[in-house]
Amino acid sequence: MNELDIARLVALDRHRVWHPFTPMQEWARATPLLIERAEGNYLFDVAGRRYLDAVSSLWVNVHGHNHPAINAAIRAQLDRVAHSTLLGLSHPTAIEHADRLARLAPPGLEHVFYSDSGSTAVEVALKIAFQYWQLIGRPEKRRFVHLGQAYHGDTLGAVAVGGIDLFHRVFGPLLIDTISVAPPHPFRHDLTDPEAVRDHTLGELRRIFSRHGGEVAAFIIEPLMQGAAGMLVQPAGFLAGVAALCREFDILLVADEVATGFGRTGTMFACEQESVAPDILCVAKGLTGGYLPLAATLATSRIFDAFLGPRSAGKTFFHGHTYTGNPLACAAALASLDLFASEAVLERVQARSATLGRLLAAQVRSLRWVGDIRQRGLMVGIELVEEGTRSFHVEQFIGVQVCDHVRTNGVILRPLGDVIVLMPPLSITEDELTVLVNATADSIAAVCQK
Ligand SMILES: *Cc1c(COP(=O)(O)O)cnc(C)c1O
Predict the structure, then answer these.
(1) From ligand 1's centre to the CA of 220, what distance in Å?
(2) Looking at the whole model, is its pTM more than 0.85?
(3) Residues with beta carbon inside 6 Å of ligand 1?
(4) pLDDT band at 450 (very low <50, low <70, confident <90, very high)
(5) Rounded to a whole number, what is the largest CA-CA distance in the chain?
């Protein structure tokens, strides 16, 4: 694209496009990067420059961009039908995909409710849980419990079970009342031993469930890793402990695997690593390989069956989004699942995760400004500190600075506050991991030294 065309687009972008999670005044002062095309693990801007997509286009891309198998599946579906509704009709692609997904999911999750985003998957989960207790004659079970600093999306129900002050505080007056428990993370506690932190948090939960369990509908959790909180890793045994408590107190367990699902933590779903089968599972982001918006909320037969009855009984789940179960998106999702099998993706992720861990230990761990490195599979958070455990001043926006700098090294990253997130596509190669870690170490040193 020539410079005039680019300048015109930049001007239009500033005027017309209101970007998500973006301070727009500042945005208008900088020159935005315009991505025109992509290939494998790389994005190309309008000037033809190449960047490693090391955050998977915001945690969604799985097998790389422009993958011939996913492209072909979408094209084949496009030649049949681009969209038809699931309200009053069905279609083969959604049916086949729902069957495949339910077979892959933790045991018991037999029924698939489609929607379009992680936030809607969570809304659906909360409303299903709430209505379930009404339907079985326990309407007093209507509250939700969640972890502090949780992130479950940006719609109001999802925000209510979230706990990231910066995003959520302003909407406080609009939200349903929930119960929050501090996340089990040593870096944010006086306790330093992960097992002590785990037992402390499980003890807190037990106290809350003992006192309020009779009025609690569900506990919602991002299993193993709280993503948007800054990649907070949960201690081993925590998730299993939570699942046991939910069973003991008859509280539904909702696993939000919007970020962790589809191999990101090294297994297809994070829940598998602690042999946990939730009552409700939310998936989105990586569901279509990162190609099209699609989400699903899976539920057990215990829950699904409570909604059965004659139309006149009014047990219907009255919820649905217009593009629910879109055929193009379902075709992409099916093709993505095929690739998991044909390319042995999960085995490769295990190997790549080990490599990434080694590279981080060798090149990043020892940097003076690195307070903590947290990793599960190919999800990584690098927490930057000014000295020891003292945080950088918020006004320094150190994470933003590092990620701006790393672009000059041909890598796209996006921070969460002072945490640098690495979340490459599962298709990343060993060589690309080396480039990624070198560039990251380089930029941390260059920016923090100042
Ligand atoms: C991103 C995310 C969501 C929200 O998904 P959207 O598609 O952005 O609405 C929900 N839960 C978790 C854990 C997420 O990481």
Answers:
(1) 13
(2) yes
(3) 117-119, 122, 151-153, 222, 227-228, 256, 258-259, 284-285
(4) confident
(5) 69
